[in-house]
Design goal:
With about 500 residues, this protein is an all-beta fold. It has no helices and 38 strands.
């Protein structure tokens, strides 16, 4: 495909005419790309790769090996036709972790699992028991990262009579595995195991320390992970393995009081630091479904919490545990305990019962009426009487973003009062003053901090059109002045309105 760039390991063919030097240059390039990664090829010493073959993939005779002599086992990643894959576009197979498996683990050691680099990994094997001599041992290269996508490969190596061979002092640190339950409850202790497999350290050099970290992960795509939002209660491990264990041994280190506090599906990754031979090695456990803990409180919110007349606020209610994990399939009630207009989902409906969804919450709409007022919705969990109900406040106001408003304008003062509305950022001393067009005082009221008219939030005052001497004012245009004082600071603003009879 011309859209594919040239990669390391591809074939580039050109034709040259060497018999006639008068003809210079070369033919057009012919570039042959490898296919996607399909399998592993394991090659003992003296073997090479045979490309463009779908059968054997390797060439050369496998030589016998001897007691106490370390020899190489080279693993290569190839496509279906034995072309080596150095860089598999759209995949990370060329850096998969590969482990070597031997049919005689009691007499032959192999190097620990490691990641390929550019589709290749050089490993080692050593015969340490004379009991393996004069027999055939099989070695298998196994892709730990993508076992279902990349095929294993096995070779047979004959171990010679071992005449004169000396068994070497042998230490094999093994490899990590991780085990955890399939389901746990948020913030509740659970037990997990770190398993070190195939350990051989009975060489008199002393105990070996195994150390590393444990990290919670979320799966984003198959084989791909990102950091999880919660925290493990036990995030590290550090333990020794006795050098007097039988060889080889599997050793289990138990973590009895592990915790995780977010309700989600997680994986736990082990990242090794010690021993040095395993530094950077990983193991993973999961998926682990984390369920919410016991119900602890009710959470409720409204968006917006300050709204105009004949508009909609989305109300969200949930029942959560101590770590705010929503709990599904629980009944909550919503009761409109304050407010004269509006309703829940449909106008006039002042009470609703609903069930939390799979994520532990549910939503409803509050529809406001035609007047400004403070609405209070009480949310309760009837099946959990010990959990306190929550009161949710919603302000319905006709003033919008203004500091103060006077409506309707003009107001037919003989039939209804003038509504004066304003909103305070904190409890304040408030003075309201109405003047005529000449600036003459018509009406004045002062409210102390914290009382109705001077309270933080929405305030409404009614004026019946009567002036300071008890007479109804004449038709005309008037000014409303508001003076607000709090924390030694005073602000002033005003608006106009009309009066008719």
């Amino acid at each position: 495909s011309p859209s594919n760039p040239e990669q390391i390991g591809d074939y580039v063919l050109k034709a040259f005419l060497v018999s006639d030097p008068s003809i210079k240059g070369a033919s057009e390039r012919y570039l042959g790309w490898h296919d996607s990664a399909q399998k592993l090829i394991l090659m003992p010493p003296d073997q090479g790769i045979e490309r463009a073959s779908s059968l054997f993939c390797s060439t050369g005779t496998i030589r016998p090996e001897n007691l106490g002599v370390k020899f190489t086992l080279t693993t290569r990643l190839v496509d279906a036709f034995c072309n080596q894959v150095y860089d598999d576009q759209g995949s990370s197979a060329e850096s998969d972790v590969v482990t070597l498996i031997t049919s005689k683990p009691g007499g032959v050691s192999v190097s620990t699992p490691a990641a390929m680099t550019a589709g290749m990994l050089v490993g080692y094997a050593t015969v340490f028991s004379s009991g393996v001599c004069n027999s055939t041992v099989t070695f298998t290269a196994h892709d730990v990262t993508s076992p279902s996508a990349i095929a294993d490969h096995t070779v047979s190596v004959f171990i010679s009579s071992c005449t004169g061979g000396v068994p070497p002092v042998q230490q094999n640190e093994g490899f990590y595995q991780l085990s955890a339950p399939n389901t746990i409850v948020a913030a509740t202790s659970f037990s997990m195991d770190i398993i070190v497999k195939n350990v051989t350290i009975n060489d008199g050099s002393g105990d070996v320390q195994y150390k590393g970290t444990l990290v919670p992960l979320l799966q984003t795509n198959p084989g791909e992970f990102s950091s999880a939002s919660g925290i493990l209660g036990v995030g590290a491990f550090d333990f020794p393995i006795d050098d007097n264990l039988p060889d080889p041994s599997d050793v289990t280190h138990n973590i009895p009081n592990q915790t995780y506090n977010v309700a989600e599906v997680i994986y736990i990754e082990l990242v090794a630091e010690k021993p040095d031979a395993l530094a950077g090695a990983t193991a993973i456990a999961g998926p682990i479904q984390v369920f919410p803990g016991a119900p602890s409180k009710i959470v409720a919110s409204a968006s917006p919490s300050v709204m105009g007349a004949r508009s909609v606020s989305k109300v969200t209610v949930s029942l959560v545990d101590l770590f705010n994990n929503g709990i599904s399939n629980k009944t909550l009630t919503v009761d409109m305990i304050q407010g004269s207009q509006g309703g829940l989902n449909t106008l006039g409906n002042r009470f609703l019962s609903l069930t939390t969804n799979a994520l532990g919450f549910n939503t409803l709409n509050f529809l406001s009426g035609d007047i400004s007022e403070n609405i209070v919705l009480r949310v309760a969990a009837p099946t959990y009487p010990s959990i306190a109900a929550v009161d949710l406040s919603i302000t319905v106001t006709l003033i919008g973003d203004a500091v103060v408003a006077a409506y309707p304008s003009p107001v037919k003062i003989t039939e209804r009062p003038l509504n004066i509305e304003y909103r305070l950022d904190q409890d304040s001393e408030v003075t309201l003053l109405i003047t005529d067009l000449f600036g003459q005082e018509v009406w004045r009221r002062t409210y102390s901090p914290g009382v109705s008219g001077g309270m933080k939030g929405f305030n409404k005052v009614l004026w019946d059109g009567v002036n300071g001497i008890g007479h109804t004012v004449a038709t005309g245009v008037y000014a409303l002045h508001i003076e607000i004082t709090a924390n030694g600071q005073t602000s002033k603003t005003k608006t106009r309105f009309g009066v008719r009879k």
